[in-house]
Amino acid sequence: MTASGAPPLRVLVVDDDAGARALHTRWVAATEGFTVVGAVASGGAALASVDRGVDLVLLDMRLPDISGIEVLHRMHVAGVDRTDVLVVSSSRDQVTVRQALAAHPVGYLLKPFDRQALQDRLHAYAAERRSRDTAQRDVPMGQGDVDRLLTTGSVRVVGPAHGATHAAQDRLPKGVSPTTLERIVAALDPVVGRSADEVAATTGTSRATARRYLDHLVATGAIDLAHRYGRRGRPQVLYRLTPAP
To answer: Which residues carry the post-translational modification 4-aspartylphosphate, per the record (predicted)?
Structure first.
């Protein structure tokens, strides 16, 4: 059980590189609220393991038998609705990225990344999943929620750019303006990652303000984190929109 009393989220690690598989398994196991239920090296093994009950799959795109894209496709065809996928891959070409995002993973984390980057993504995912589960079970839906569910398959609201109702805006954290949030969201892209400095420059806000809004969007699962590694210094954090499921 986690500190909140909820059972830990079950994670399957899928990577054909034995070193990466072992490393990611250790990082997930060290993250509060998560437990590793398997670590496999092929797409076929991944699909077999998902059938035995998994909450989240860390899925590499380059596998020896079938591609990660094919794994995503077969999961969709099989109707594996309760299993989410976080893509972890070195594949950066637009075709692969766009095909993966079309399957609505909870994120696309580019290799190489460090432990903190993965754990940040896992914590954001856990918060988004709890919010999603609560909304589906307990919160009465308004007409705007119903309309969004019909058109997008999701009731999650990012901001006015995604059709937020006044009630949804009232639930924003203190200090988060719907107007500024709309500008921040409009500056982001689902494929091309942007830094906090780039978002600040585009929106005309300070870096501190941009970072505060980006942190809020990460916590709600509306955007995804990635890292850009240079020759020196710490990796630069990049932000991308997460396509609605």
So the answer is: 60
79-137: pLDDT as tens digits: 777 899 999 998 888 888 888 888 888 889 888 888 998 998 898 888 888 766 655 55
Q: What counts of helices (H) and strands (E) characterise the chain? A: 10, 7
Whole-number Å distance between alpha carbons of 121 and 27: 12
- Give me the domain span that covers residue 88: 9-134
Q: What tokens were used for 244?
A: 């609605």
Cβ-proximal residues to 176 (8 Å cutoff; 6+ apart), any chain: 212, 213, 216
Q: Which two tokens stand for residue 68?
A: 């990660």
Q: Please tell me the total count of domains within the chain.
A: 2
**pLDDT less than 70: residues of the chain:** 1-5, 131-172, 227-235, 243-245
Looking at the structure, tell me whether residues 128 and 13 fall in a common domain: yes
4's tokens: 């909140």
Closest by Cα among 161, 85, 89 to 125: 85
Burial bucket for residue 130 (CB in 10 Å: 0-12, 13-18, 19+): middle
**Which residues touch 227 (CB under 8 Å, ≥6 apart)?**
110, 113, 114, 117, 235, 236, 237, 238
What beta strand segments (E) does 94-222 contain? Answer: 107-110
- CA-to-CA distance for 208 and 204, rounded, in angstroms? 12
What is this structure's pTM?
0.57
